[in-house]
Specification:
The protein is α/β, with parallel strands linked by helices. 35% of the residues lie in helices and 14% in strands. It has a ten-stranded mixed β-sheet.
């Protein structure tokens, strides 16, 4: 049995979106068209279920723009897999909140600031903040577990702590702090990315927050150096740091698990190690997903730690950090290069 088991799959079922976010990996808009029909999507789910039972997260674009989103969710469950919905929250209403609760095991909402002025600026549409808070309230009433995903660049990094506090206040089960990787529309925001120096300080702040936070699960995402920093800070402070895991997480013991425990299928069928990765490892419309997962060069490279750049390959944290391969590729045109945010 291959030791690299698929635990979590993001399936982008549409590129259509009603927002215009600065960091969008898909460059999503309402002008784009769906490429994968219901039958093509369930064929992929069928194939994956023969070997793996990952948590399947239906994402976009905005997945609620697909009229068959609940049919797809039901089918995933029928195959014995848990299913999540990644929504911006603006299309959630009282009627579909009940359907979401009936068809999904968990949902995630995107909140990128603690106020309408910060969030709506990031999302490119006025009123998005209030609509997302309303969605959180509806999920709470329906008893649906929900996660808050928050993405940060220079334009909203001043609001990180208040965004965390808001996620806790509205009753989220977890808060994920995403450090933006430049891909899709995000490629245009290199100048807006959080600096390497601030990155380290933010991760240090998060470590000490995680020591105190006992109610809500928190974790930085696309920040593999966090796992090295936790060890360094714990040793410095002479504390025994125990990490908690969420039941919908991928295990949480390692920084970058792209292509090792997780994968991403784009709206066009392109398979990538993660949603921020620039290159495709193959297309499910031409090659089976399992063939890509087991045999594509990109996925094999992601698992061959000794062939990473020399700094990573010889680092004591190679097995817990690994560096962000997508960020390395975006900066240097080489996904095996050093992560430009490495501070170890």
């Amino acid at each position: 049995m291959n030791s690299f088991e698929l635990k979590w799959l993001a399936f982008e079922i549409t590129p259509r979106c009603n927002l215009n976010c600065v960091h969008c990996r898909t460059n999503a808009s309402m002008n784009l068209k769906d490429r994968l029909g219901y039958k093509e999507i369930i064929n992929v789910i069928d194939e994956i279920s023969k070997e793996f039972k990952p948590v399947v997260v239906l994402t976009g674009g905005e997945p609620l723009l697909r009229s068959d989103v609940f049919d797809i969710a039901q089918y995933v469950r029928k195959k014995g897999m848990r299913v999540g919905l990644a929504t911006n929250g603006t299309l959630v209403n009282e009627r579909n909140a009940k359907e979401i609760k009936e068809n999904f095991d968990v949902a995630s909402l995107s909140i990128d600031g603690s106020s309408a002025s910060v969030h709506d600026n990031f999302r490119g549409v006025k009123g998005a903040f209030d609509a997302t808070l309303k969605a959180a309230d509806l999920f709470k009433k329906e008893g649906l577990s929900f996660i808050i995903n928050s993405s940060f660049t220079k334009r909203n990094q001043h609001d990180i702590e208040n965004t965390y506090k808001l996620a806790k206040k509205i009753g989220a089960d977890a808060w994920y702090m995403f450090i933006i990787v430049p891909t899709g529309r995000g490629k245009d925001i290199f100048d807006e990315l959080i600096s390497k120096e601030d990155y380290r300080e933010i991760l240090k702040w998060h470590f000490y927050l995680e020591l105190k936070e006992k109610e809500m699960f928190i974790r930085p995402t696309c920040a593999p150096e966090y796992y090295a920093l936790c060890d360094m800070e714990a040793k410095k402070q002479k504390i025994d740091f125990k990490r908690r895991n969420l039941k919908f997480s991928t295990g949480g013991a390692k920084g970058c698990i792209a292509g090792q425990k997780i994968a991403f299928i784009g709206y066009d069928g392109e398979v990538k190690p993660c949603s921020y990765f620039l290159r495709s490892a193959g297309n499910v419309l031409e090659t089976g997903f399992l063939e890509i997962w087991h045999n594509s060069k990109i996925f094999k490279d992601m698992r061959d730690f000794q062939n990473y750049n020399k700094k990573c390959a010889t680092c004591r944290y190679i097995n817990v950090c690994g560096g962000c391969r997508a960020r390395a590729d975006a900066y240097f045109g080489d996904y095996m290069a050093v992560d430009p945010y490495c501070f170890v």
